Amino acid sequence: MQNQDRTEETEGSRHKENDIFASIRQDSPEGPLMGAASGAILCVICCACILVGAVIAFFVWAIVTLVKSAPSNQSECGKDHGVWEFCLAVVIVMPMLGIVVNAIASFTKNNAVAAIPTIIGFAVTIWGIVILAYLGECEQYYQHSYPDLLLLFKIYVILSIVVIALALCFLGCAVCLLGTAVLTTGLPGMDTRSSGRPDGYSDLPGNDGNDSAKDERLRAAARDGRLIEVEQLLSGEGLSANVNARDPANGWAPLHYAAFHNHRRVAERLVAAGAKLDAETMDRERKTALRLAEEKGNDDVVAFLRSVGAFSYNDGGADLGGATMEFV
After folding, report:
1. What CATH number is attached to the domain comprising 278?
2. How far is 168 from 186, CA to CA, in rounded Å?
3. What DSSP assignment string belongs to 166-225?
4. Which residue among 35, 252, 255, 273 has the highest number of C-beta atoms inside a 10 angstrom radius?
5. Which residues span the membrane (predicted)?
6. Contact present, 280 and 326 (Cβ < 8 Å)
7. What is the DSSP string of 1-70?
8. Closest CA to 142 of 92, 78, 89
C-alpha cells in the first residue's frame, strides 16, 4: 500500500514538473482547471500567435503571387493599368520605405521625416482607387489569367480605403476635441477667465475675470434705478455683487448706468459701496460717470458726484481728490 502511494506521488510530481501551465495557474482554487485570468492570458497569447501567423502567411502568399504574376506587366492591360506595379509598391516598396524612414527619423530626431510614408501611402491609395475604377474589361483578363494578382490588388485597395477612412475619422475627432479645447481654454492671447474675451479684459478696473450673474443684475438695477435690489446685491455676505464690475459690451460700471439715467440715490449707494469715480468707458471718448451725467443734463447726479470729488476732463485738469486715474 505504501509502495503504491509512493508511486502515485512520484507520478504526480513528474506530472507537475511537465505541466507548463503550473506557473501561470499558481495553484488556482479551481484545481486542475485553470483560473479565469490564466485562461484569458492564454486566449490572448493564442490569438496573437494566430494573427502573427496569418500575417506572415499572407505576406508570403503576396510575395509568391508577385513573382508568379510578373509576366502580366508585359501585357496590354498591365501596361495600361499597372496592377502589378501597384501590388509591388504596397507589398515591398512601402514597408521597406517605412523601415528606412523611421530609422532615419530616429537617428536624426526629426519627426517631420516620419510623415513621408504616410503621405506616400495616401498617394498610393488614390492610385489604387483610380486603377480599380478604370480597370474595365481588363478585370476579366486578370480574373482569367492572374486571379491571385487581382485578389491581392483588391485586398490592398480595400484595406487602404478602410485605413484612410479611419484616419479621417480620427482626424475629425481630433479637430472636434481641439475646437472644444479652444472654446473652453481659449487660444494663445485669450483669457478664458473673462468668458473667452481677449486677454486684458480681466485686467479692467473692477473685473476679476468672473462676470457673474449678480454683477449683471447690479448693472441692470443701477440702470433702471431699482435701489432696493441694488442694496440687496451689495449687502450679501461673501456673495455680494462687484460694485465695479464692467459690462463686457461697453465697459460701463454700475455707476456709469446710474449717472447716465439720473438715479442719484442709486449713485449714492454705489459710491458708498466703493464705486470708482474716475473709471472710464471703453469707447473712444472714454467717459467718466460725471461726464455722462453732464452730457445728459442730469444736474442732480452731477452735483452729487462733484461733491464727492468726481471730475470731468472738461474741467481742465481739476484735482482728483486723491483718486487714482484708471485707464481701461
Report:
1. 1.25.40.20
2. 25
3. HHHHHHHHHHHHHHHHHHHH--TTB-GGGTTPBTTGGGSTT--S---HHHHHHHHHHHHT
4. 255
5. 33-63, 83-105, 112-135, 155-183
6. yes
7. -HHHHHHHHHHHHHHHHH-TTHHHHSS-TTTTSPPHHHHHHHHHHHHHHHHHHHHHHHHHHHHHHHHHTG
8. 78
- In this structure, is residue 136 part of a structural domain? yes
Which of 121, 151, 185 marks a domain boundary? 185
State pLDDT tens for residues 31-77. 444 456 777 888 889 999 999 998 899 889 989 988 988 888 888 88
Q: What is the pLDDT of residues 178-191, one digit of tens each?
A: 877 766 655 444 44
CA distance 246 to 279: 10
**Secondary structure (3-state) at 292:** helix
List, for residues 96-110, the tens digit of each pLDDT value: 888 888 888 778 877
Q: Quick one: which of 192, 175, 83, 179 has its CA closest to 138?
A: 83
In terms of residue numbers, what domain contains 247? 201-315
